[in-house]
């Protein structure tokens, strides 16, 4: 068997046809920026996630930057971010001129709950990242942030559709940032992102910032930029969103299969809470001291895996910062993402499980 970590060419033929049809519709209409598809995407996401406002933009990294700018975070300000995340979380903070203050994570890569020890008089904001699709405990985090008068920007790039206490990932913070990068659970056929907020004033500002500061053409009220979503991507997302729920169901079925079958492997740490609703089963990250050997063994058996991520941010040259970050670094050294996506087949999941068991010397 040959099993890719994720092969987006496996999108089924019927869905490919609907996407081609959408492309040809938009080509015939000649609308490539703004328009009805963008409006439809906004309203579909608002109703799906129960968010008052949804402002699409060019990608998830821009969403973070727009969020920080909308909250007037910049030079002289500190922003608390987890040591383990995709680089964008820290990158956006540096890009607006603020300083990321890295904090340790728990064993699953989520911002450790004692993060408020990092608060100084310069701290303006905290950015929890719902890594691998698992949500940080948001009611506790928001409560603490309020006590310190800090803004909360949720990096919900990996957790689209996860829900905690009835509230969707991205709707807990002052602003929530989404990514529709193609590999995400709701992924476009290119780059796209979005800011969510429940505050009308912030929504207006994000919209202005993402469109040259203009409420209407040629009237520039503030210095913005062009981070508009592409109409084609909005159109594709309007098609793909219809598949989201069924894709989620398949992810959960396969995640359950992995959990049931791999829980007997004592040398593996499995993802916590992946079957709960506050996890969208974006990635299935197992942890083992023999990570590198396991990855090579699986590759030799035709199984693609990935590492999210091999280095923590404060160990990277542009972001270098002191700190122990023991748990975050352990995850970087020991985490391995097994294939988990709606294009897999049950036999493939079973084959992966067999090979993992074989690696650890367990043959049933
Ligand atoms: C945690 C996290 N934050 C931010 C981003 C940035 O999203 P994008 O790739 O759309 O810029 C991503 C996606 O790659 C991500 O995984």
UniProtKB/TrEMBL annotation:
Pfam families: DegT_DnrJ_EryC1 (PF01041). One of its GO terms (molecular function) is pyridoxal phosphate binding. InterPro entries: DegT/StrS_aminotransferase, PyrdxlP-dep_Trfase, PyrdxlP-dep_Trfase_major, PyrdxlP-dep_Trfase_small. CDD domains: AHBA_syn (cd00616). One of its GO terms (biological process) is polysaccharide biosynthetic process. The modification N6-(pyridoxal phosphate)lysine is found at residue 184. The keyword Repeat does not apply. The active site is at residue 184. Keywords: Pyridoxal phosphate. Belongs to the DegT/DnrJ/EryC1 family. This is dTDP-4-amino-4,6-dideoxygalactose transaminase.
